[in-house]
């Protein structure tokens, strides 16, 4: 009580005075000690490992969300709610287990999103540029596909009777989601219109088509990518006057029409805007296809809140549909445009995308329980994004370092890129950033080397996990280990010997007594 009152008083004083650099209470060693003791007490509860069966498994994939991006997004999230930001906790920060993931592709030290997606979805490392095929397949060579297909955890879950879903802010046939259902030697073969004639003649199929043909009826599909589903010269439903959004298919097929026909008597709905999405009651929907843009969804900062749902809103609807299956579900969620922001050198977009994915993680946490849901948050790879420069506590994450360069006597932003489109010389010298609006949404942070697209980074990325057997994701691991853990925890896919069937639903052979009590209490209450 006394502590709370002091805290509130402290906050009032803090609000009322000229803002000190950090809260007064931080001068008290007791503040730090009590905080650490609370954390320690919490950590000690983890000695009782959660060995339940993961009825539900969820993977949140932040495309390009390296560790510097996570830290900067955390500071941004705090600053958006009026705090300094450094002390803020992202939702993913609250997960009890963290590991590092080694992201290299079989043929690349610095990987791409296709080979990495094959690793964390299919459990097999692969060549860059390829999805759902092993490293025996060669990029863009159709004739190396057959016999080298590898299946994903989404398929293992579907085969086990679970409902499955894909939610992304990119095209639904972009690199990340496509490794969940497609086997393709070229991630850019979105529709048959994107494929060389030779590949089509040899029998290779485009990724959009594989979305609907490989795994019978993925229960929930949400994202962008309409134009790859319709025949050439079909105007887009939302932008009929904009020719660049015409359909791209050469085979004349209307994949959306075929899907809706197939769904006639199956409580399946197709929507292409936010209003129609929210007109649905998830308890009456068993299948959902939501394609909200011809290509990728807009950046969260530029989203038209009338027509396009946020990632959080899509995740909310997806879980409400999927969780109706008593055998549980697998959901892949991609914050896909963190990567695009970075490639453009536009850190503000990248970080707002990461914050939005974190909000989606919070929403998923409210709709599920750690007793029966394993949630994993990770990235496919990092970027050459950095922030530094001895900035003071609470400095705007998009702000300037407090010092000038001692070489060219000019200011510099804390955020910088190793390479990218932000490289800029003015009159033969580095631009003076004080003369431009470096907090603008589309500001491109300075880069050391000029490149039209900033590149991926090669360092490890984090894996955060909570729920049943989350502790198996610890230490420094190869990226392809991730789906093996998730499948083991859910008793799907290979090595199920530790699972035994008990009145229809699988369970683990070793359930700690404490958990058994907790579980039965939960059963009594439900
Ligand atoms: C596979 O296709 C490539 C061209 O994409 C060709 O060079 C190669 O000879 C073909 N290999 C076989 C075994 O047919
Ligand atoms: C787009 O479709 C319209 C209507 O069918 C057609 O007139 C136009 O030529 C198409 N444009 C492109 C670039 O395909
Ligand atoms: C950079 O721009 C600011 C704002 O216009 C100006 O005050 C400062 O003198 C400039 N510094 C250099 C080194 O040109
Ligand atoms: Zn990328």
From TrEMBL:
InterPro entries: Alkaline_phosphatase, Alkaline_phosphatase_AS, Alkaline_phosphatase_core_sf. GO terms for molecular function: alkaline phosphatase activity; metal ion binding. This is Alkaline phosphatase. It is a lipid-anchor; GPI-anchor. Residues 1-18 form the signal peptide. Its main location: membrane. GO terms for cellular component: plasma membrane; side of membrane. Belongs to the alkaline phosphatase family. Residues 240-253 have a biased composition (Basic and acidic residues). It comes from Sinocyclocheilus grahami (Dianchi golden-line fish). Residues 231-253 are annotated as: Disordered. Keywords: Cell membrane, Glycoprotein, GPI-anchor, Hydrolase, Lipoprotein, Magnesium, Membrane, Metal-binding, Signal, Zinc. PROSITE patterns: ALKALINE_PHOSPHATASE. It holds the Pfam family Alk_phosphatase. It catalyses: a phosphate monoester + H2O = an alcohol + phosphate. Mg(2+) binds at residues 63, 174, 176, 334.
